[in-house]
Design a protein that fits this description.
Order of helices and strands: HHHHHHHHHHHHHHHHH
Structural class: mainly alpha
Shape: globular
Number of helices: 17
Distance between the termini: 63 Å
Helix content: over 70%
Strand content: under 5%
Largest sheet: none
Length: 444
């Protein structure tokens, strides 16, 4: 129970941060608030993982990750990836609830069809020897689907209004309820944590609805604006496709590992993947997200500005990656014990490879700023598609040759990241920059 009280202490600290956002002027800076909210989101995620790792082991982590994966796919299908467009439309007119109500209406329309499809295919979507039963899966998905999808849209709407303190409270509410249900758990830690996660999402969604002013009467006689819907769909199309590809890839990798090796090994892979996400969140995402508006400006100036921006970001990424790899190589066992438990020590020697893989993907992400800013999204889709297909083919070949192990899957992931990096590198250096003047003439 020591780990539980440590986790509880973290949430007390998060509550103090929430108060600080309202009281101290220097934390009212919007970028800083955004950073704090993202840190809290990461803490909530790893607090849940820590509890599962300590009290459930690798098998519980694999089952929970598969459940998250499935609800994530359902989210993309229900919201049509309208979150980015919703944020932009809300930012244009913060007092208007029309974009948000439009998105919520779409959820209500699509939920019955998605739940029916999930019920029909649920057994094939579960892992071998999954710790959750089919009935439990569908029950939790049914309870969680609506508030989980609504929370995603409500948060996107609040980002458009830049009211990050509301988002912070929402994340704390979502994360604290699994702790409450965990206290009363006896043996079924996974079920109790998911139950708390469901209640937390409901409470978080109700909180944001009250803060924004979303009430049932707004949906009566509401007519969807085609103009607003088309505008939001334009932003969500590419992110939705990439999101589905990423979710399906995670599901297939987990499926192969559980079928060919074991559920525990799938849990080991999931823990490695979470460490990769932590690297992306702490190092790669700030470099990429803040670089996009700068790249839009650089495209209007000239080739030297583009190259200078890319070099600066990649240099910073390289330095931080070297430091991360050095730190990981020296303290890999301690990192595993801090984030998970001693049951996960077999992954300690593979963390360096995982960080190097994420570095290659992050470098590719920085280079992808060029086609994204130039509105040439086809190369973005093609890059993700080819690197994803490399993993699909690699998994099939490894499974067919009875060579599917955790180490080989990590090497396969590294190879896919290298392909991702090479593809976009070749396009930026040998195609786009050579035709830069033609591009300027086209967008002028």
């Amino acid at each position: 129970m020591i780990d539980f009280f440590r986790t509880l202490k973290i949430y007390v600290s998060l509550s103090m941060i929430t108060v600080s956002l309202r009281k101290f002027k220097f934390i009212r800076n919007k970028p800083l608030q955004n950073f704090i909210v993202n840190v809290v989101k990461a803490i909530v995620m790893f607090a849940l993982i820590k509890l599962l790792a300590v009290y459930g082991g690798p098998a519980s982590l694999a089952s929970f990750a598969n459940f998250q994966n499935l609800i994530g796919i359902m989210l993309v299908l229900a919201t049509l990836s309208l979150q980015t467009g919703l944020t932009i439309e809300t930012a244009k007119n913060a007092s208007s609830l029309e974009p948000l109500i439009t998105c919520i209406c779409i959820i209500f329309l699509l939920i019955p069809f998605i739940l029916f499809a999930v019920y029909f295919f649920l057994e094939s979507l579960m892992l071998a020897n999954d710790l959750l039963s089919t009935d439990s899966y569908f029950l939790y998905l049914t309870i969680l689907f609506l508030p989980f999808s609504a929370n995603s849209l409500l948060v996107a709407s609040e980002v458009g209004r830049q009211r990050y303190s509301n988002i912070l409270v929402n994340y704390v509410l979502i994360g604290i309820f699994p702790l409450i249900t965990f206290v009363f758990a006896k043996n079924d830690f996974l079920d109790e944590i998911i139950t708390g996660y469901c209640f937390g999402n409901w409470v978080g969604a109700i909180f944001l609805c009250r803060r924004i002013g979303v009430v049932p009467t707004l949906f009566f006689n509401f007519k969807v604006s085609k103009k607003i819907l088309v505008s939001m769909l334009r932003y969500g199309m590419m992110s939705g496709i990439i999101g589905i590809m990423t979710a399906i890839l995670a599901f297939i990798m987990r499926y192969y590992l559980t079928e060919d090796v074991s559920l525990e090994v799938a849990g080991y892979w999931e823990s490695l993947f979470k460490i990769g996400l932590l690297f992306q969140f702490c190092i790669a995402t700030p470099l990429i997200s803040t670089g996009l508006p700068l790249m839009v400006l650089a495209l209007k100036v000239g080739k030297k500005d583009i190259i200078s921006l890319l070099k600066g970001r990649i240099k910073t990424l390289f330095i931080l990656t070297v430091l991360s790899i050095t730190f990981t190589w020296m303290f890999s066992d301690w990192i595993v014990l801090f984030l998970f438990s001693e049951d996960f020590l077999p992954i300690s020697q593979l963390i360096v490879l995982m960080i190097f893989s994420e570095c290659l993907k992050a470098t590719g992400g920085i280079l992808l700023l060029v086609p994204m800013a130039a509105r040439q999204l086809g190369i973005v889709f093609l890059t993700y598609l080819i690197s994803t297909m490399c993993i699909f083919v690699g998994l099939y070949l490894l499974s067919d040759a009875s060579l599917l192990t955790l180490q080989n899957v990590v090497w396969l992931y590294l190879g896919s990241s290298f392909v991702h990096f090479i593809l976009i590198c070749v396009w930026v250096l040998f195609r786009f920059l050579r035709r830069f003047q033609n591009h300027l003439d086209r967008i002028a």
